[in-house]
Specification:
747 residues; Enzyme I, Chain A, domain 2; eight-stranded parallel sheet; Beta-Lactamase; binds phosphoenolpyruvate; 16% strand; alpha/beta; single chain; binds magnesium ion; Glucose Oxidase, domain 1
């Protein structure tokens, strides 16, 4: 077989472009294309398989196989050689297809007579669209040049698919980005929302995959890469960069200056691709590699290359990040990932957020939680599938997003939202009533907050106060350390908005995984158990003292409640408390007013503190159980690890037994005790905590209604007996017995 030259390739691409330009239906175009490719590659067969749904490929056009098989032959991802190409995102090239591992005989196609097989993925920037196959009777391996040529063609097909070139309403083929897709991710923040997609980084649309004049295209790509290099250099020369940002930009610079990258793109252009399509071809190849690389560092670098390719595409197409498109009504933000500051900027405009990456403890999740926006994380490939304006349902409770849902799904989802709204209305009617149980015990229900914007919920939810004000956000969303005066102003506004209700300010819980953009990151193998929270505060007291000063200034004579996160032993509390007292003394000596009442408490988040000496319980003004951390350390189950985080139940009787011990220790010294982890906001868990003796719970504002409603129906002594029965029966968890009992409870 003669070697294919660049001009052969260019000729073929030009003919493909003509097909695209002609007024024909999607199926006709596909048929013409398979004919052209078989003709140009000198093979008897050329077939195009496209994804029918994310798991199923369908033969959509063929030259050489039986025409009856078109739209009949289907295979699952990974099934047969075609499925293998799609799954692995790499070519399969064999001289003897029937003997190849995984070969599947499809009698309807008549393909057994073809010995050689070459299949390449049709993909666009990591998005799998289908598989392009050529086959011939002669047993031979295809050359590297031929593989490359077919990959270039596949790239053009990918762009054409994206542009909807093969779609028409009457040929039974449904376009990509039009079908309903359900994403099974994980819960970042509970709640349900319906809205329209707003892509954080809109996709760049390439309308000209094929170019006539390689020299012009090479000039364009060189010029664009030149601009890219200058822009990276400009960024690098900024004074405000920290070490991390510098490192990323250095990696960008390395890629931008890489001769290999530019050379490969120039080769793609020589074969007939436009500059844009060449960038995407290399980007797709990098993405495909990214999926298989286990090394986290390398994956990061490949991400960098991906980012850089997007920048280059924007330079080439003139499509900036700001496309000028108007945000749709009820926007649902869809992104690979997003920083806390950017998310905060969108603020409460957003109905929901769906992320491809992210984690429960990520900064974005913290912000979403503070804004009470439903958040689904780990929605793989959502940014490739979603288009701006697409209809989307976000089910934060289940960790699911429905993109372009069928009407039946949307209707069921709306019913769910309506039920939740109805329930909220029911809860609203309880707002001004106390959380008074049937047995006459009142439980104080406080709310957790972290933003100024949370404070209106204090009135709306009927919370008795703020049981936990997380102060991290103000530190996380800035790119430099906030100043004392700024913090003092904010804290004062929080206190003003609380109108005399108690606000428990927790000092900075930062370090390890929650790294401040302007702080040197520590490479710790186990960040949750690392140098965090009060450990950082005591080792580097500058920030702790500054924060305490800001709080003291903010109170301006009013009462102040401060608590320290992650206290593990008595002496840590003593030292932290001494810092507060020293600052009070200092403020007084400077002539400033100091709080008329001062409460200094500790969060109990590590089991060790439950066994601290009596002196600790006597000294501290209160203890607040940080159940999220306490549970992870009690069960040794990482709260951010999806695999294990739901494995253990808070109603596990060993854990409840431990909580009882803490209650007993606090009772012995008369130390006020509260619980402020997420579990306090789950009605059944809250009920169990109250039955064990907790009288103060702090939770998300939205949970106050449901928790109050259940507490008001219950008799705590009865619940206590149910828990004791479960324990006596040797159960692991009190949940089944408790749920059974609750199902008999009258309204
Ligand atoms: C906790 O650990 O329960 C807690 C309230 O603190 P955070 O979730 O901020 O770690
Ligand atoms: Mg905690």
């Amino acid at each position: 077989m003669p070697e294919r030259s660049d001009s052969d390739s260019r000729k073929l691409l030009r003919r493909l472009r003509d097909v695209l330009g002609a007024q024909s239906k999607g199926q006709e175009r596909l048929d013409q294309i398979t004919h052209l490719i078989a003709d140009s590659m000198l093979t008897e067969v050329c077939s195009i398989y496209l994804f029918r749904d994310p798991e199923t490929l369908e033969l959509c056009a063929t030259e050489g196989l039986k025409p009856e098989a078109v739209h009949q032959t289907r295979m699952k991802l990974g099934e047969g050689l075609v499925g293998r190409v799609a799954r692995s995102n790499t070519p399969v090239n064999t001289a003897d297809a029937p003997s190849e591992k995984g070969f599947r005989y499809m009698p309807e196609t008549g393909e057994e007579i073809y010995s050689s097989f070459l299949g390449v993925p049709i993909q666009r920037v990591g998005e799998k669209l289908g598989v392009l196959v050529v086959q011939s009777k002669t047993a031979r391996q295809f050359s590297d040049d031929e593989i490359y040529a077919l990959e270039v063609v596949a790239m053009v097909l990918a762009e054409m698919t994206e542009l909807g070139a093969f779609t028409s309403d009457d040929d039974g083929m449904r376009a990509l980005h039009r079908q309903p897709v359900m994403f099974h991710g994980a819960t970042g923040q509970e709640g349900a929302a319906e809205g329209h997609v707003w892509l954080h980084e809109p996709r760049v649309v390439v309308t000209n995959p094929v170019a006539d004049d390689p020299l012009t295209e090479i000039d364009r790509i060189r010029e664009a890469v030149g601009q890219l290099r200058v822009s990276v250099d400009d960024l690098l020369s900024l004074q405000s960069l920290d070490k991390d940002q510098k490192q990323v930009l250095e990696a960008y610079r390395m890629f931008a200056n890489s001769r290999g990258w530019l050379r490969r793109m120039e080769e793609d252009i020589q074969s007939g691709l436009s500059a844009e399509a060449a960038v995407e071809k290399e980007q797709s190849a990098a993405r495909a590699r990214l999926e298989t690389v286990p090394d986290a560092y390398l994956r990061e670098r490949l991400h960098d290359l991906d980012d850089l390719s997007n920048r280059l595409l924007r330079i080439l197409t003139g499509q900036g990040a700001d496309t000028g498109a108007a945000m749709p009504e009820n926007p649902v933000l869809v992104a690979r990932n997003i920083g806390p500051a950017e998310l905060l900027e969108y603020g409460r405009k957003l109905r929901g957020v769906v992320l491809e990456d992210g984690s429960v403890g990520s900064h974005a999740a913290i912000v979403a939680r503070a804004l009470a926006i439903p958040l689904v994380i780990h929605a793989r490939r959502v940014t490739s599938e979603a288009l701006n304006g697409d209809h989307i349902l976000v089910d934060g409770d289940q960790g699911i997003a429905h993109l372009r849902p069928e009407e039946t799904v949307a209707r069921a989802f709306r019913d769910k939202i309506a039920m939740q709204t109805q329930a909220q209305q029911r809860y609203a009617s309880l707002r001004d009533l106390p959380a008074l149980t049937r047995c006459g015990t009142t439980i104080a229900l406080h709310m957790n907050a972290g933003l100024m914007a949370d404070l209106p919920s204090l009135d709306g939810s009927g919370a008795d106060g703020v049981g936990l004000f997380r102060t991290e956000l103000q530190f996380l969303v800035r790119n430099k350390m906030p100043r004392r005066a700024e913090l003092a102003t904010l804290y004062a506004r929080v206190m003003d908005a609380a109108k005399g209700k108690r606000v428990a300010f927790r000092t900075l819980d930062i370090g390890s995984d929650k790294v401040l953009p302007y702080m040197k990151p520590n490479d710790e193998p186990n960040p949750a158990m690392g140098w965090r929270a009060i450990r950082v505060g005591l080792d580097k007291p500058g920030v702790l003292r500054m924060q305490i000063q800001a709080l003291l200034r903010a109170t301006n004579g009013r009462p102040l409640t401060v608590m320290f996160p992650f206290v593990s032993e008595f002496s840590e509390f003593q030292h932290a408390r001494a810092h507060v007292l020293r600052e009070v003394h200092r403020e007084r000596s400077l002539g400033h007013v100091v709080p008329d009442q001062l409460e200094i408490g500790a969060m109990l988040e590590t089991p060790s503190l439950a066994f601290a000496p009596d002196a600790f319980f006597q000294l501290t003004d209160f203890v607040s159980i940080g159940g999220n951390d306490l549970k992870q350390f009690f069960f040794a189950a990482d709260r951010e690890n999806e695999r294990v985080r739901r494995r253990y139940d808070m109603l596990n009787l060993s854990f409840l037994g431990f909580i009882e011990q803490i209650i007993a220790r606090c009772a012995a010294t008369g130390t006020p005790l509260s619980f402020c982890g997420e579990d306090a906001g789950r009605p059944v868990e809250a009920l169990a905590l109250a039955a064990l003796g907790l009288r103060n719970l702090s939770m998300r504002p939205a949970s106050i209604g449901p928790v109050k409603a259940l507490l008001r129906r219950a008799d705590l002594a009865q619940i206590r007996r149910v828990i004791d029965t479960a324990r006596a029966n040797g159960e692991d968890s009190a949940r089944p017995t408790l749920m059974e009992f609750l199902s008999t409870l009258s309204d």
